[in-house]
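for the writeup, i need someone to sanity check this before i put it in the appendix. the sequnce is what the collaborator sent (i think, or maybe the updated version? ugh). structure was predicted straight from it, no edits. if anything looks off just tell me and ill rerun, i have time this weekend
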Amino acid sequence: MIFNTWVFGLFAMIGLLVYWSIVPARNRPHALIALGAMFYAYSVPAYLLLIVALATITYTLGHAMLRSDGSQRKRKLFLILGVATIAGTLFFFKYTKFLAATVDQVAGHNILPLPNIVVPLAISFFTFEFVHVLVDIYLRKIVALDLLDFAVFTMFFPTLVAGPIKRFESFAPQVRSIEMPSTQTFLLNAYRVVIGLTKKTVIADSMTLFIQPILLPSDIYGRLDYWVAMFAYAAKIYFDFSGYSDIAIGMSGLLGLRIPENFERPYHAPNIAQFWRRWHMSLSSWIRDYIFIPLGGSRGSRFVTACNLFVAMGIAGLWHGAAWTFVVWGLWHGVGLAVHRSWQLTVVPKVAILRAGGRFVRLASVGTTFAFVVVGWLLFAAPSFPNAYHAFIHLFA
């Protein structure tokens, strides 16, 4: 079920009416589980079993870690088993076809048959949330795993489709104390939903007409067409992602719960590191906490730190889609982050005007960062490297 459809609108209105007028306060967590199951089963009902199975594995292994009486060896074994199962499931459904196609391309002929696998709705989101739970239990950041709290966390429908990626330790305490929002709060959250729908349907979707030169490059387009397409796509992807986040945050508020913000004026960021602190914040913080830092973060040499950034951002790119264009887009940002870090450590301390900052420096920084991000979107948007190359050449040649 997608947010910007009449089906979801009907589902949300009826669900809210029943949730607040009929369901007793003590049963609202159960109602959220039921609503989530209906929401998820609408697309491919059989895959509801998948999310239930992975949730059961996560809950069982999480409890096993909590009951392991301090045995670090057992805790690590349960963690590895859980993360491997979850990551393996994600890989099978989302990347098996991608891997087979890559092998065939390298070989020059068909070696592996391309499997006909339907990717489960939102598998990238709920698998990341399950990994977070297991890792934070292992790190003793989560010290209790209540079944009802975890079930609501798993099936909370506003975040199932497009995030934000929740954290259990901030979400779970709200489950047992859900209260009807005040009239003002209810209206503000309803307004947030309307704003999100407007971003998605009015702005983002209307940009589709202008981005055709990137999707289907052709000599019929001139240089201006490609420049318009590049900036149109920058607008489209921002208003699309942030619109979905606004709807999710607003719907959560209407249900009496809070989830994290996901966007904070990212195109105003003065450098690429700040961009990633403002863009899809729940994802970027997940990548930082569960990939970049475990790899060693910035504790090693500049070379090691750069390698950690490349790996983390390459995975972030692959998370967005099963294609090498997404991987290279992630590496593009990895290079940007590594260069920014080196710039901050070696150049800025030696240049007085950069140390002082000021309006001109900030404007130049924001402009440079925006240009870097927008050019990178060519890799994200294009269905293939030849398409991206064709668009790039027509932009600057």
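Residues 203-396 form one domain. The radius of gyration is 23 Å.
thx in advance!!
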